[in-house]
Design goal:
Largest sheet: 8 strands, mixed
Distance between the termini: 143 Å
Strand order of the largest sheet: 5-7-10-9-8-11-12-6
CATH topology of one domain: Immunoglobulin-like
Helix content: 10-25%
Shape: elongated
CATH class of one domain: Mainly Beta
Radius of gyration: 58 Å
Number of strands: 46
Strand content: 35-45%
Number of helices: 2
């Protein structure tokens, strides 16, 4: 009987099988062109005239190819090992498994890598190279590589010496940590910790000595302190070993740019420098000189301060002199108000002439000296301000309130005083020379200018006319009720008399209002 094996619906592999029993095992070797990772494998019975599909019996897959195993150094119970490569795919039928030595642990697949937690039952009594294998299908393991198992359980650990005396800031001292198991790695580190002095820890190098010891370089500290010492072999997991007492002696020498201060070296302050190492102190820069930062190591770091600059042609760093407008005190200081300094030198500032001052400090020329208050400039001299005037900053005088300037430069009193405001201005309602005239819309009332009112006739009409109308109506009614002609004539006479009185009153009021208007018009011209 001839069987046909079809791989991925395209590649055919034929095999002639002779069945001697009810069951027969057939071995099929995929062709070299089969590169797919997961494909269906169909089995058919073929004859010269037909082909009968028996079904898909299993799937074919390639073995994964491992390219990396990380990390190379692991710690039991803590490290996750990642195996990466090609063909590491999470098939729907896959059962990913890692094997460390002979210990199997489940794995997870993501992004072409299989991750497995380090087996917890591996022994830490030695430093073994543990083989790592992975399988996508049960019992189909592929050797991935090996890792180095390092245990950090430091049984019976202690540090020696437990008390270390640091005599010099440049000393390189070590504390040796002893324990049951140490292994040489490239990740050995030491950590010195104090919750008060060094809450973030001081990290130093660690060196393998033997199976039972390693050395930790002692950090430099500024004061005596007790530090907790912990170590690691993988660069991550620190295990506390012991406590170490560090004693510090006063230093005997300091590098350039630093000087001794009690137990340690401190940088030279601003305005100081130190060019050579030793026990000597920092030197001060020259007068009126400073440095931009602390820890200066050369005299050429010294520069003149803010208000001085070099004057010496040989660039002598002790020759800084004050700028114009500044004089020498403990440093270059600005000339006070009322003084000036035109030259670049360390001399004193020059006082302004009599009755003169400056508007601000740091003046550099005599032209900045102006007349003091209550004086003004006239023909190059400061003369007193006239009575009734105000003088400030050397400017020409201006009138005070209640005074006005005349053509002769004299300030005279205004009548009334409220007619004149300061700076030769007239108050509201006043105008003209010395504010002696009333402005348009104002008339003179005694000495003051008062705003003109209206004619006043309208309010008279509003009050009188209603009474006239009511009176005429009353008299007509009385006359109509009486049939005699004498009553009618009497009513007419009374009404005419009443109207005559009203007209006389209106004439008097009109004449008075016209007089007011005439006064306003005359005084505003």
């Amino acid at each position: 009987m001839q069987l046909r094996f079809t791989l991925d619906n395209s590649t055919h592999m034929d095999s002639v099988v002779s069945f001697t029993t009810d069951t027969q095992q057939v071995t099929v070797t995929p062709p070299a062109s089969a590169t797919a990772a997961v494909v269906p494998l169909e089995v058919s019975v073929i004859s010269p005239v037909s082909e009968l599909l028996l079904g898909t019996f299993f799937e074919y897959y390639e073995d994964p190819v491992v390219t990396s195993v990380t990390p190379a150094i692991v710690h039991a119970d803590r490290t996750t090992v990642s195996v990466c490569g090609t063909g590491i795919v999470a098939y729907n039928w896959a059962v990913p498994v890692c094997k460390f030595g002979n210990v199997q642990v489940p794995g997870t697949i993501s992004g072409g890598c299989m991750s497995c937690q380090m087996a917890s039952d591996l022994q830490c009594t030695e430093r073994p190279n543990v083989t790592v294998s992975i399988a996508l299908y049960p019992d189909q393991y592929v050797l991935a590589g090996s890792v180095e198992l390092v245990c950090l359980q430091l049984a019976n650990a202690y540090a020696s010496p437990a008390s270390i005396f640091i005599e010099d800031a440049m000393d390189t001292l070590n504390s040796t940590v002893f324990a049951d198991f140490f292994y040489a790695t490239n990740y050995m580190r030491c950590k010195f910790f104090s919750p008060v002095f060094y809450p973030n820890g001081l990290f130093t190098e660690g060196t393998f000595v033997s199976k039972n010891s390693m050395k930790c370089r002692v950090p430099k500290v500024n004061a005596p302190c007790v530090l907790d010492l912990s170590v690691t072999m993988n660069g991550q997991d620190y295990v506390t070993a012991d406590s170490v007492m560090l004693w510090v002696n006063a230093v005997t020498t300091c590098p350039p740019g630093a000087e001794i201060d009690g137990l340690t070296c401190v940088p030279c302050g601003k305005g100081e420098y130190k060019e050579e190492g030793g026990a000597h102190s920092c030197k001060a820069c020259g007068s009126r000189m400073t440095t931009s930062t602390t820890g200066s190591t050369s005299i050429f770091n010294c520069t003149c301060d803010e208000y001085a600059f070099f004057m010496d042609i040989l660039f002598d760093h002790s020759m800084c002199t004050c700028k114009a407008g500044y004089y020498l005190a403990t440093a270059c200081m600005p000339c006070p108000v009322g003084t000036y300094k035109s030259e670049v030198r360390t001399g004193a500032c020059v006082a302004c002439a009599t009755r003169r001052t400056t508007a601000d400090t740091g003046s550099t020329t005599p032209s900045q000296c102006v007349c003091i208050d209550d004086y003004y400039e006239k023909d190059g001299e400061c003369v007193p301000c006239a009575s009734g005037a105000t003088c400030k900053g050397g400017r020409p005088p201006i009138s005070q309130g209640g005074y006005a300037a005349s053509e002769e430069g004299v300030f005279v009193e205004c009548l009334p005083a409220g007619a004149c405001e300061a700076d030769n201005k007239c108050a509201a309602g006043y105008s003209g020379e010395r504010c002696s005239s009333c402005a348009d819309g104002y008339y003179r009332s005694q000495l003051e200018c008062v705003a003109c009112a209206g004619t006043g006739l309208w309010w008279v009409l509003v009050l009188v006319v209603p009474f006239v109308v009511v009176g005429i109506g009353y008299l007509l009614r009385k006359a109509l009720n009486g049939p005699s002609s004498s009553s009618i004539i009497a009513a007419i006479c009374i009404t005419l008399s009443f109207l005559q009185v009203c007209l006389v009153c209106l004439c008097v009021l009109s004449v008075r209002s016209l007089r007011w208007l005439e006064v306003c018009q005359v005084q505003t011209k």
